[in-house]
Amino acid sequence: MTRIGAVFNPYHHAPEELRAAVQVAETAAVPELWLWEDCFRESGYASAAAALAWSENLRIGLGIAPLPLRNVAVTAMEIATIERMFPGRFLPGLGHGVQSWMAQVGAKATSPLTLMREQVTALRALLAGDAVTASGRYVTLEGVRLDWPVASAPPVYAAGQGAKTLALSGEIADGTVLVSGLTPAEVGEQIGHVRTGREAAGRAGEPTVVAYVTAAFGEGADARVTAQHGDDALAVDRGLAGSPVEVVAGIARFAEVGVDAVILDPAEGEPDFPAFLRAVGEVARLVS
């Protein structure tokens, strides 16, 4: 069964709006609410912890936080702390970060792929409870082990758009996050790169893929999606619009190409975010 969720967009919503959104999502039985961390807006880990504290059943995804901003030991501590407090409800994701922003804070990596390989590999080992020693280009650890390890490590997602990054995600991460605005055919092509990396690493089974998909419900839904993604957006499923039943039909086309979780991202100009969340809850009910 395809997992369903919604996006809390840090460009459209200030941090103090998160609590109300979480409460609506929880009441509407939205299974997952996904956040992300862009410079210089809202802390991903602080927001995730708060959202989990304000809910009982809602899973919170972080798709994504930029790898270069934190030492991998700090990232492991953040994730482990949240996982211990709210077991099984946090889905952390990591990515290269926007290079111009990373340069602004003196954290731009000459080789973002090397950074991702070193950090994600070390992070997963730390979350597994290992004592980690590493001497790489970007990660240096000497016998580091979490003093408060997790009973069961949460899945670590990676994100990217290029073929090399997607293949690396398939090789080293537990799952991959894909951006919105892609058609099912384009998503299928990107999943192919993830599979290539997974197969090259000798990993069995299919990759776990989360795809953000632009969506709009109610009056003016079609216009909002086409304004964001072009006149042909609805014809090629670059975004989904209409009733929950119509959106479910579009979600099926993403599931057919290998998407495990469709996270509905409100189209720009969404006039009623609580209503959007309630519609996503209905979509989740129909899918289940």
UniProtKB/TrEMBL annotation:
<feature type="domain" description="Luciferase-like">
    <location>
        <begin position="14"/>
        <end position="224"/>
    </location>
</feature>
<dbReference type="Pfam" id="PF00296">
    <property type="entry name" value="Bac_luciferase"/>
</dbReference>
<dbReference type="InterPro" id="IPR036661">
    <property type="entry name" value="Luciferase-like_sf"/>
</dbReference>
<keyword id="KW-0560">Oxidoreductase</keyword>
<dbReference type="InterPro" id="IPR011251">
    <property type="entry name" value="Luciferase-like_dom"/>
</dbReference>
<dbReference type="InterPro" id="IPR050564">
    <property type="entry name" value="F420-G6PD/mer"/>
</dbReference>
<protein>
    <submittedName>
        <fullName>LLM class flavin-dependent oxidoreductase</fullName>
    </submittedName>
</protein>
